[in-house]
What we know:
- The structure holds 2 protein chains of 2 kinds.
- Chain A folds into 3 domains: 4-42, no CATH class; 71-158 and 260-364, 3-Layer(aba) Sandwich (D-Maltodextrin-Binding Protein, domain 2), CATH 3.40.190.10; 161-256, D-Maltodextrin-Binding Protein, domain 2, CATH 3.40.190.
- Chain A is an alpha/beta fold.
- Chain A has helices at residues 2-23, 59-67, 93-106, 122-127, 142-146, 189-200, 213-221, 232-239, 269-287, 295-301, 305-311, 317-320, 327-334, 338-346; strands at 70-74, 77-78, 82-84, 90-91, 112-116, 133-134, 150-152, 157-159, 161-166, 181-185, 206-210, 227-231, 248-250, 258-260, 263-265.
- Chain B has helices spanning 2-10, 17-49, 80-113, 118-132, 136-148, 182-210, 216-234, 260-287, 290-298, 303-333, 345-356, 359-388, and strands at 158-160, 164-167, 170-173, 175-178, 240-243, 246-248, 251-253, 256-258.
- Classes of the chains: A alpha/beta, B alpha+beta.
- Glutathione (GSH) binds at residues 75-78, 118-119, 137-139, 185, 188-190, 212-213, 230-231, 234, 238, 258, 260 of chain A.
Amino acid sequence: MRKTLSILSVLVLFSLLLAACGGAQPAAPGETVTVKETVVVTVIAPAAPAVVAPAGYGVTLETVKTRGNLICGVNAQVPGFGYVAADGSFSGFDVDYCRALAAAIFGDPSKVEFRPVTAAERFTALQSGEIDILSRNTTWSLVRDTELGTNFVHTTFYDGQGMMVPTDSGITDLAGLEGGTVCVQTGTTTELNLADVMAANGISYTPAVFEDADKTFAAYAEGRCDAVTTDKSGLVSRRTVLADPAAHVILDVTMSKEPLGPAVRHGDDQWFDIAQWTVFAMFSGEEFGITSANVDDIKSSATAPEVKRLLGVEGDLGLKLGLTNDWAYNILKLVGNYAEVYNRNLGPDTPTYIPRGYNSLYVDGGLLYAPPFR
Amino acid sequence: MQNQTQQKNSIPLWRDERVLNILGQAAFAAALILLALIIYQNMKAGLAKQGITISLDFLKGLSGFDISEFSFPYDRNSSYWQAYLVGLVNTLNVSILGVLFSTILGIILGVARLSTNFIINRLAAFYLELVRNLSLLVFLVFWYLGVFLKMPRVKDALLWPGDIILTNRGVGIPWGLPTASFPTFRLILLAGLLLALIVFFSLRAHGKRTGRPPLSLLWSLLAFLLIGAAGWLILPEAPLTLDLPFVKGLNLSGGKILSPEFMALTSGLVLYTSAFIGEVVRAGIQSVSKGQVEASRALGLNAFQTLRLIVFPQALRVIIPPLTSQYLNLIKNSSLAIAVGYPDVFYVSNTIQNQTGRAVEMISMVMATYLLFSLITSALMNWYNQRIKLVER
Ligand SMILES: N[C@@H](CCC(=O)N[C@@H](CS)C(=O)NCC(=O)O)C(=O)O
């Protein structure tokens, strides 16, 4: 009996071995490889990236096309940026970027599968190939650009870290937090900036650190902390879901620079270019006054060469990216230009209204500036 | 004899069971090692494609983040390694307190479950059934969000007798503040411990000789307390002064402040594990056959002696192995700290992993840490089990 058992287990092991070999066929250079989607077990074992999709030029687009949809890592807890409604539908500024990318690739903005990732999970999810792109109010920083194995495409939202306190606390500046407690989320640039800024100003405080935004803000709402800190956009957004939004103020301090934008894995430059030029197409759409409403008219009547190149009437810019020539047309037609997406999620008519500020076109005194389409 | 060797020699190698066994084992081990190597290489190749290498050097780097609770000095200028140690000590704190309190509560529950008093019996049964059928994660979040964060705010802090302050910023309890004579007092306590050990072992030896085991544990405890009390009185200045907690502005100060995160995690773990320990204890006691008790009473031992000398030693043999796995559960379950924001070793390692991207290294370290804790616990419990097990003659 014992012997049969041990023989059995050896057999099982060998079959496992064979499976392991089959799954990890090394790719010869230049060969196109179709990669099976890998599933990552998070929380318990944050994805030792054992079966990483072989990264390399063109691999990601190929994978996405064969799969038939884009897997986009998004936020699920920050209204206006990435939020999942009770019916399971996603909405937000970062979510719409995913739709724009899907429109560019498939000509269909609905070909996206949204994967909610917390701040702590996001880079592992990207590294391990569980998601194709991360679009989740993620700050561009040197360490993330290098050691975390990610490449940030152009920033889509310029932000800075802020601090929110209950109005009746009477606190008006950071010094007012001396000896206090600050709620903050782990795995963020936020917790690092907080430590930096408080140390630099000689303010002693205790952090209360939580794993996701819901817990962080629940603890703050219960009075566990004197203040809560995150990106100002995050504060504006989360304030709308507090019991009494009017009872909280965001202090007039900016603790850091937080350029937020989409990020891709190291190693696939083509995918990086597609992700990046999707952003630029949206900027340029606004700059040239092309909206989802008038794009058809403009396409048929445009005379400006750059507009024609952008919309694929002239030249073959889309093909150079490995896409079809109407990629930018699809983005603008099916999702909209930067201003449309911004106003839909963060505009004056939304609960999460944030003035454009730095996030205006350079012609309007902002920082958004797309390189030429040629 | 001769015949036998002859017979053995005549078996061909490929049919010799011993050789086959060894071969089988070797093949198994080789397959295992090969599999591990393939997985490791696969992972390394995958990481290398993204320019990520595996190394522990990053642990020396500056952590850059603050941690809410630490048992030794730590701030953002400390290294990742120190941050890891902070988490490790926090895990140890919770585990040791958890094991201690859940054992005490578990024994009480187990005995109550067997009580002939109907109300006590039913209450204990209700508690055990309720808690054992809950999910621990839900239980912990309940204690955190539902109990400790729902305590009154600091400005209407709840004062309990014994100078205990309850707020949603933490529970303040009186604590000893060491004075100048504390180091001397520590030495005295050490001497007390030594004496207690001497008392314990000589009493036990005496009991073995005479066959009438005295209450060695009780006496050695008394010896320790006596020395401690004497030391306290003799020293010119009391070694500890009482430090009471008080409300200061928005927060608590003085005494010892136990954070809501710590309280939720520890009390959640204790209340949860004690329910399982209660069942273990009940089963252990019930495993001792009734005849043993009757025989003991017939021999003239009283009820207490019967429990101490007959029932308990036998029940213990049944209790210890499952108790060990409950201890191991508690230690491993403490990694749920992340759900209530308590910076245990898993939580801190997650933070480090996040800020550095060193997933493989951090997960390996955490696994090694829990393995070490579990092995130490098992070793201690096995040693104890060995000592109390039936000596067969
Ligand atoms: N921009 C910062 C912080 C981004 C961040 O994670 N913000 C929090 C607080 S608003 C959040 O989005 N949490 C949502 C979640 O964890 O699901 C970063 O990239 O580290």
